[in-house]
Amino acid sequence: MTTILVTGGTGTLGRLVAERLRADGYEVRVLSRHTQPYAVDLREGGGALDAAVTGVDTIVHCASAQKGDEQAAANLIRAARGAGVRHLVHISIVGVDRVPLRYYKSKLAVERLVEESGLGWTVLRATQFHDLLVMVLQGLSKLPVLFLPAGVRDQPVEVAEVADRLVELAAGAPAGRVEDLGGPEVRTFESLARAYLKASGRRRAVVNVPLWGAAYRGFRSGGHLTPQRAVGTGTFEEHLVGRFGGGQVRTGSGRPQA
């Protein structure tokens, strides 16, 4: 039986990947910092990581953090080479080579480590998940006025569709850099924010604010979009319905009204 290791296997994406691989009959190992028997901090590596990859045919690398991704990838690659892993599948982000955001630069560096690893490899870039967009809008809407970066569009994708694609890639031969996976619609950030407010029952004034800096210019120019690869099917509104239902308006007392 083929054994597949999923790093970040308890996260939003990794959990779905692991579930789908098990349903397809694979032996799955879930690696995360706190989940036994493969509780490993990839940034530290060591013997626990070596044990986790021993006997593994394919690794699906979903783990990510704001800091330390490059060291984590280097440790994983070292262990994978030592264990004779056949295939390393890595999920990245559309625009990491076009938007000069620090986190994106780190993700691009990880891609290069994967490409130069000496392992059979596959890299998939996807647009931002619906879940992340909701989390961002939840944070922004804590204020009475919802401030948005002016002129920015987004192309969110349903995380389950990304999981399905990663499972398909993990089951195949190493394919190098494959075509990007984007959500079905390129939308203004304002239209997405208003859809979120309606679904979550929040009333907020929406104000578009011009920002500055190279990263903002990269987002404003659409460097994080892939309209030619709008192959996802789940829309943001469909995600919101699944998350919030029909949406309600909150009164000053905090009680929802239909």
TrEMBL record:
Superkingdom in the source lineage: Bacteria
InterPro entries in alphabetical order: ComplexI_NDUFA9_subunit, NAD(P)-bd_dom, NAD(P)-bd_dom_sf, SDR_fam
A Pfam family per the record: NAD_binding_10
NAD(P)-binding domain: residues covered: 8-131
Listed name of the protein: NAD(P)H-binding protein
Native source organism of the sequence: Streptomyces violaceus
Taxonomic path: Bacteria, Bacillati, Actinomycetota, Actinomycetes, Kitasatosporales
